[in-house]
Amino acid sequence: MKKSKSEELSEVVLESGIKVKPVFGPEDIKGLVYEKEIGQPGEYPFTRGIHPLMYRKRPWTMRQYSGFGTAKETNQRFKWLLKQGQTALNVAFDLPTQLGLDSDDPFAEEEVGRVGMAIDTLKDLEEAFADISIDKISTSLTINPVASVMLAMYLVVAEKQAIPWDQIRGTTQNDILKEYIGRGTWIFPVEPSIRLIGDMVEFCSKNVPKFNPFSVCGYHIRESGATPVQEMAYAFEIAITYIQEVLNRGLNIDDFAGRIAFNFDIYGNLWEQVAKFRAGRKLWAKIIKERFEAKNPRSMILRMIAGGGGGGLTIQQPENNIVRGAYYALISALSGTQTMALCSYDEAYTIPSKKAALISLRTMQILADEMGLKDTVDPLGGSYYIEWLTDKMEEKIVECMKEVEEMGGMIKAVETGYIQKEVSRQAYMREIKIQSGEITK
């Protein structure tokens, strides 16, 4: 019997393990109830976006990750980026600073100022923000084990600029569990580190109400090798761990959940990435409402920065990374993220040059101002494929979360090395596929 053309096609299986057929139609989403599973933008379960008008009212924040050398050099780059139209700051610190080491520490040798700016004293941080009114911008301090120290210094910088704490907007990354999984810049054991995060949440909720005390980073887990499903599932389990720490102190979920931020990665299949974020918004809203019994709808929203990750870039033919970055930015916009950041085309082999950083910024600006991405909310909503895939991604994320919870939660899964092994296994499998030509890169 002769095979049909459909049967002759090669099988398509997404990185998340979902099989994709050639054509989708109404029958694929007939079980979906719009009001319950999709809903209007700005309304529970926030599948289509966390604000009613999204980019039509306010475009995404453009927040390039930047910082190198000395505070003075970084200050010059900050001011230049802001002059070019960047709308927020995303601060890169060098590894010694991230680990609480002074620049003259023997362990800091050869790393001072290399992948970010060196901060040793309050004077350094003052210099980094010289002539920048920090009440006019949102600043992300990308630092983890010493986040409490850096926030304290930043608040003193605000005082010296005569800015009240309640006017300070921004984020400390402050996600220590992902450091054990994906980066390694940790100082203290797991439980004391989580206690510090709880301290930060308590302090900020009472004293710096517009500041996000932590940003859960699926980004680094994905960059380390995790699948899109694992990226979301592990990030949510990490966030749940931090939430439980704060609730155990007597705070109510609505006291702080609205200030939880997330940092996610973008590279790979365009449709899978869009569905990942739509599914993530829906699932996170359900978790906060149903598991933690939040009453305020703003506690249920998934606020995130997302952008092109270095995992998708190549050292060979680096100019191709400009094209990749443009598509990553498109995915971010189509996914309804609040903040966008792109790895510059040369970040496959160095920190961004001025030229490369500007190309990334202009990419986001062109997308916002010339391509019509601000015209209407969730333009892919209603697509048979996207709605079907969103539903499947949610199912997969829930399954992955259950695996972690059956082990006793994220702390146990990290301490036993389970998460690290899973991420490493996926990274190895992906590299095998790249080397064999099954994946093009």
Could you explain the architecture of this structure?
There is one protein chain. The chain has 441 residues and is an alpha/beta fold. The protein has a domain of 301 residues: Alpha-Beta Barrel (TIM Barrel). Helices cover 47% and strands 9% of the residues. The chain contains 17 helices and twelve strands. The protein has a five-stranded parallel β-sheet with strand order 3-12-11-10-9. Helix 6 links the parallel strand 6 and strand 7. Helix 10 packs across helix 15, helix 12 runs parallel beside helix 13 and helix 12 crosses helix 15. It is globular.
Q: What would you report as the Rg, rounded to the nearest angstrom?
A: 21 Å
**SSE string:** HEEHEEHEHHEHEHHEEHHHEHEHEHHHH
Largest beta-sheet characterization: 5 strands, parallel
Low-pLDDT parts are: none
Strand order of the largest sheet: 3-12-11-10-9
CATH superfamily of one domain: Methylmalonyl-CoA mutase
Strand content: 5-15%
CATH topology of one domain: TIM Barrel
Helix content: 40-55%
| N/C terminus separation | 38 Å
Count of distinct strands: 12
Distinct helical segment count:
17
The outline comes out as globular
Any guess at the CATH architecture of one domain? Answer: Alpha-Beta Barrel
Structural class: alpha/beta
What is the residue-averaged pLDDT? 96
The CATH class designation of one domain is: Alpha Beta
